[in-house]
Amino acid sequence: MGTQYDRIEPAHQRFIEAQPVFFSGSAAREGRINVSPKGMDSLRVLGPNRIIWRNLTGSGNETAAHLDDSPRMTLMWCAFSGPPMILRTYGLARAVHRNDADWPELDGLFAPNMAARQVFDLSVELVQKSCGYAVPEMTYVQDRDTLTHWAEQKGEKGVHAYWAERNATTLDGVPTDIAKRNLSD
Description:
CATH superfamily: Electron Transport, Fmn-binding Protein, Chain A
Radius of gyration: 17 Å
Number of strands: 8
CATH architecture: Roll
Low-confidence stretches: none
CATH class: Mainly Beta
Helix content: 25-40%
Distance between the termini: 50 Å
Number of helices: 5
CATH topology: Pnp Oxidase, Chain A
Number of domains: 1
Structural class: alpha+beta
């Protein structure tokens, strides 16, 4: 068992900010569990018990729908270089959509990106640090720019059409209400 903390310590924050990738885990009370890799400068530690991360358009929209049913979320980082470590944060999260009052403030903490569809606001209840001895060492090369270029080529209307086509329901068939929550009337 790893070491547990009730807050993000300064050393944890430095570790989090140095990692080029993290993993998000969520689940509704019933149905499939989702784990997704994230990157592209999409996460901010706002305090010892608060993390936000911006969700860009992808092939699914599981996390936002899961949070409607159960606000549980886990984030995980692994040291792929340097001393081994795995760090997890556990807590309750909410999805902030483009039509929400606090969207401009939270999304404004990141560089503009047309593919942005939610910001997740995680209230951290538990932090766990473990050894990471079985995590392989790998060399980070660079962030991929494919998603940004894809969104720029699609344009705003094209991205919104993609949401309607590909992000309207979860893998379990649960409606995500992405259009209602993110598009102007």
